[in-house]
Specification:
single chain; 314 residues; mainly beta; 10-stranded antiparallel sheet; 1% helix; 45% strand
């Protein structure tokens, strides 16, 4: 569920290369040279994470929301209040991350590798709508929505998922053998990885709203309420939904050589962050109401203030 832990014996496994014959350098040999000490290796690097659980890192309270609706009467929600953050303590129960890259390593004394990877990564994330802070505005007083009305409900009964595009990724690290005894090798490693993919598709399924957004754009650093044009083709000052991925890892592994096989077992400590800059993405809607509807999605979003019983919309 993290960056792969490499084999601690890997720096000393391939002394001879396909292009030239290597030499096993001995730092205690007075006749050895740096040509014997250094070699370069290249290969393929693949990292596939299928089921990772991520904790949502947010404050306990959320600011800028309207008051919680009460009773049966409509009301105005123009006064911001501090409310418990429904995303606090939640987890993304399904986080997947896939990386394919080229691997290049500088080997020293057949004991240490300093390496980097250059390639591409993409991901998939899914969790309850509460983890993504899905909010809405329901029960507004009047025949129209003023620009200063604040969202008043947090929608917890739903699912939010999104896919990222495939974008450039890189990592750097080091791996080395710390102790050798016969065929056994104990080693350690460190690795840092980074990528900045954009969200390719956002899918929201909940009781009051269902919608899909391709290449979503949103507002960063913008307080509630969002502009009335949010979610329409006329929206301005929006930015692409970009995920900033950072991960570091330290690992410790023990290997044992059995003829041509070198099995190993290892443990690691890692921390991965996926930061979206608290972007706020609005549900897609029409710039002007059509048939008293402001969106074609199956949702509770319209502008009718009375029920038309003489006509039917299917």
């Amino acid at each position: 569920q993290a960056l792969p832990v490499g084999n601690p014996a890997e720096p000393s496994l391939l002394i001879d290369g396909t292009m030239w014959e290597g030499a096993s350098g001995d730092p205690c040999d007075p006749c050895s040279t740096w040509c014997d000490a250094i070699s370069i290796r290249a290969g393929y690097y693949g990292d596939y994470v299928f089921d990772r659980v991520l904790k949502v890192d947010v404050n306990k309270t959320i600011t800028g929301m309207g008051a919680v609706p009460t009773g049966a009467a409509a009301a105005n929600y123009k006064t911001p209040t501090d409310r418990p953050n429904i995303a606090y303590g939640k987890h993304l129960q399904d986080a997947e991350w896939f990386t394919n890259a080229a691997f290049l390593a500088l080997n020293i004394w057949d004991r240490f590798d300093i390496f980097c990877t250059l390639g591409a990564s993409n991901g998939y994330f899914k969790a309850s709508s509460a983890a993504f802070n899905l909010v809405g505005l329901i029960g507004v007083k009047g025949s129209s929505i003023a620009a200063d009305q604040l969202p008043n409900v947090g929608i917890t009964q739903g699912i939010v998922e999104f896919y990222t595009d495939t974008t450039f990724s890189w990592s750097v690290g080091a791996r080395g053998a710390l102790w050798e005894c016969g065929c056994a090798t104990l080693g350690a490693e460190f690795q840092y990885a980074q990528s900045n993919p954009k969200i390719e598709m956002l899918n929201v399924v909940s009781s009051p709203a269902q919608f899909v957004v391709h290449k979503p754009r949103g507002y960063k650093g913008t307080a509630f309420p969002l502009p009335l044009t949010a979610g329409t083709d006329q929206a301005t000052d929006t930015k692409s939904a970009t995920i900033k991925y950072h991960e570091w890892q330290v690992g410790l592994a023990l290997s044992y050589r059995l003829n041509m096989l070198v099995p190993y077992i290892g443990v690691n400590w890692s921390r991965a962050t996926f930061d979206a800059d608290a972007i706020r993405i609005a549900q897609p809607k029409l710039a002007a109401a059509v048939l008293n509807l402001t969106t074609w999605n199956p949702t509770l979003l319209g502008e009718a203030t009375a029920l038309d019983t003489s006509n039917k919309n299917w």
